[in-house]
User: What shape does this take?
Amino acid sequence: MIHIRSAGEVEKISQACQIVRDTLFLMEEMVEPGVSTLELDREAEKFIRSKGAEPGFKGLYGFPATLCISIEDEVVHGIPTDRKLTEGEIVSIDVGSYIHGFYGDHAKSFAVGSVSTEKKELMEVTKACLDAGIQQVKPGNRIGDISAAVQSKAESHGYGVVRELVGHGIGTKLHEEPQIPNFGEAGKGPKIQAGMCFAIEPMINMGTPDVFTKKDGWTVCTNDGKPSAHFEHTITVTETGSRILTI
Ligand code: MG
Assistant: This one.
């Protein structure tokens, strides 16, 4: 079942979303060569709790941290450690928060210092994929319209679209129906209605779409070792289109 949220419920999701938005603004200031992913995680947790919210991922399905931090060929779900970021890497940070019974979910990829043109382009296109998906969100369209828009944008640049992980509905649970794949056919899937809330999150690989999970049971990596980028917004469907809650 896909929930239709009342204005009051959307307001609560929006509060959770503003906290994760501000968490990533803080992370953007902190991302630089020499900072460890554990330091980022600690500051993010401190910040989220200072706003009266709880980290949305910590403890969920057994995930041990506040942030998912995925470096270079790591696609998503990287676990923070004492590993330090180095110049020229790209790092994807995904964060959730939970407040007043509702979740917000948001992710961005960042450059550590200066990165290659190829990596810069990968990040720009992944963000453009997210924008293209969001543009398809309006009452009467279908989930497949979002999926097809993301896929065609990514593949027009020769990139690989991860199949194993998808976007999702969001509300009182972090992951609700519907699933929102980053690949698919326009005109297919559930009909979009005002009041639905989605986390749309393209995970785009510079090379092959194929991925595997590391022995830690969490970290998803590209099979060919090439970098991956990840951008995610939580949005709500309005009468005429959508409103991004994480900006
Ligand atoms: Mg998500």
About this structure: The pocket of magnesium ion is lined by residues 105, 168, 199, 201, 232 (CB under 6 Å). The chain has one domain: 7-244. DSSP finds four helices and 15 strands in the chain.
